[in-house]
Amino acid sequence: MVTSLYIVIALLVAKPDKVAELKHELMIVRDLSSQESTCRDYRVHQDLNNPAQFVLYEAWESKEAHALQFTKPYILELGGKLGDLLAQPYQVMFVNEI
Fold this sequence. Notes:
single chain, 98 residues, alpha+beta, Alpha-Beta Plaits, four-stranded antiparallel beta sheet, 3 helices, globular
């Protein structure tokens, strides 16, 4: 089924000693983002072969709805912590289902 939602895939890799902390922070963001009226789906996945690697799947009503997330206090708070938690810069893809 092809969707008109704005789909975001993000890849984050935690520092070896920060895996549990990053996981905790991502679950908070998932829970709060899922409550947003424009969020259609928000999932956090942890790699079975590399537990330090996380993949986020987000589905938003629009590009604008996703952009609005970056004004939310809980996203700003996470942004301030990522430098200490991540082993490398996170990667983001904006995709369409085909």
